[in-house]
Write a structure and sequence with these properties.
There is one protein chain. Helix 3 packs across helix 4, helix 4 packs across helix 5 and helix 8 runs antiparallel to helix 9. The protein is of the alpha/beta class and about 260 residues long. It has 2 domains: about 190 residues, 2-enoyl-CoA Hydratase, Chain A, domain 1; about 50 residues, Lyase 2-enoyl-coa Hydratase, Chain  A, domain 2 (Orthogonal Bundle), CATH 1.10.12. It has 11 helices and 10 strands. Helix content is about 40%, strand content about 15%. The protein is globular, with a radius of gyration of 19 Å. The mean pLDDT is about 95.
Length: about 260
């Protein structure tokens, strides 16, 4: 598929997905959503790709959210089953996804970042759910993910005021993992991704799925059911499950196969 609104680069088992509409601060419209849905489908289905990093083209914006000018001009709206940017409703991907936020992350752009497992932000990053200022609401997951990630009162403080939050405050609130100098978000995200690749991808997927499924039920139920989760079963049946202890006993680095 020819990509018009995004770019994809692969570095070993790491896929870098760049939102590429810099002329509108990487704001997204319907065609971009459908394209990105296919990009994430391909990443999810590729056994050789273990981790994805999402970032924005240019040095000003990660993603300014929904392309309101496109919408105001009568452009069609909507997205595929994966949600905004093909990501916000993608609940079946057990591979880690990292947001490298290199500037503005507004509305749907912030919702993309919240849908990722880690957020690495440059010092010039700015986060907000400003939808109420234009008569909308953050219905691509922001109103649900933000309270779960930073607590109800803190999330209400951001959502009801629609205020802008700096990368530093995002770190203090708990939705940002690391703040780095401007221009270094992608480099830092790659550093995190490379650390993750030191671990078994089967274990990483089992861990992510267990967290996600476990948070949806009681602690007692989560512990009782976790060994029946598909990714946990896949881990136990994998060659990596044998390789890890064997490498430890032989005092050598493990050779992960991801199967």
């Amino acid at each position: 598929m020819e990509l018009k609104f995004s770019k994809v680069e692969r570095k070993g088992p790491i896929t870098i997905i760049t939102l590429s509409r810099p002329e509108v601060y990487n704001a997204l419209h319907t065609d971009a959503h459908f394209e990105l849905n296919k990009v994430f489908d391909d990443f999810s289905a590729d056994p050789e790709q273990w981790i994805a990093i999402v970032t924005g083209a240019g040095d000003k914006a990660f993603c300014a959210g929904n392309d309101l000018k496109w919408q105001a001009a009568g452009g069609k709206r909507g997205w595929d089953k994966g949600g905004f940017a093909g990501l916000t409703s993608r609940f079946d991907c057990d591979k880690p996804i990292i947001a490298a936020v290199n500037g503005v992350a507004m509305g749907g752009g912030f919702e993309i970042a919240l849908a990722c497992d880690l957020i690495i932000a440059s010092e010039n990053a700015t986060f907000a759910l400003p939808e109420p200022r234009v008569g909308l609401a953050a219905l691509a997951g922001g109103l649900h993910r933000l309270p779960r990630q930073i607590g109800v009162k803190r999330a209400m403080g951001m959502i009801l005021t629609a205020r802008h939050v700096s990368a530093k405050e995002g770190l203090e609130l708990g939705f940002v993992n690391e703040v780095v100098p401007q221009g270094e978000a992608l480099t830092a995200a790659l550093r995190w991704a490379e650390m993750i690749t030191k671990n078994s991808p089967m274990s990483i997927r089992a861990s992510k799925q267990t967290i996600q499924k476990g948070l949806a039920v009681s602690l007692e139920q989560a512990i009782e059911e976790q060994r029946d989760y598909p990714a946990v079963k896949a881990m136990v049946a994998s060659q990596d499950y044998i390789e890890g202890p064997k490498a430890f006993a032989e005092k050598r680095p493990p050779k992960w196969l991801g199967k």
